[in-house]
Amino acid sequence: MTAAHQQHGAGHGHAPHEIPVEHEPADSWHHHDLSAEGMPQREHASVANPFALAVTFVVLSVVTIGLVAIVAVYYYQQVTGSGGLVQQQDKEATLRLAAESQAYAQEAERALGSSDWVNPGKDLVSIPLDAAFDRVIQKYSQGSTEGPAAAR
């Protein structure tokens, strides 16, 4: 124990803070007896075999590259190949968009070719596109430059 520890304990009126070391006597396993055990074995792998290490490295590298190639081919076939996930999703999206655009195109054709109230409170009516062209041409050919209000 150091002098500082002794002073620390003495200054507080009690013994220094120290845990006593308790050891049991070592059993027979800790005592190596050459007559009972024989000579110790040589350290395992104390000398590296460069050829075995090189062969192991090459085999592991080839197996790793082969597995990566297999996964890449599988991914390509499943995702981008014919009948793959991306192609199926593209087909589904194209069919869905085609149906939506077809419905939109039909509604637009109907709206452009028919008369309908746009705002009944302001007396605004939509007329077929061909009729609107004819009315604008007729008004401008008569020399009217009053704009859309004159075409009504």
The radius of gyration computed from the alpha-carbon positions, rounded to a whole number of angstroms, is 48 Å
Proportion of helical residues: 55-70%
Mean pLDDT over the full residue set: 78
- Give me the strand/helix succession: HHHHEEH
Our measurement of the CA-to-CA distance between the termini, rounded to an integer number of angstroms, reads 113 Å
Entry keywords:
5% strand, elongated, 152 residues
Fold topology:
Elements (H helix, E strand, L loop, with lengths): L2 H9 L22 H4 L12 H31 L4 H28 L3 E4 L4 E3 L2 H13 L11
Antiparallel strand pairs: 1-2
How would you sum up this structure in a few lines?
With 152 residues, this protein is mainly α. Helices cover 56% and strands 5% of the residues.
Describe this structure in words.
With 152 residues, this protein is mainly α. It has a domain at 115-152. It has helices spanning 3-11, 34-37, 50-80, 85-112, 129-141; strands at residues 116-119, 124-126. A two-stranded antiparallel sheet has the order 1-2. The longest helix is centred in the middle third of the chain and has 31 residues, at 50-80. The chain is elongated.
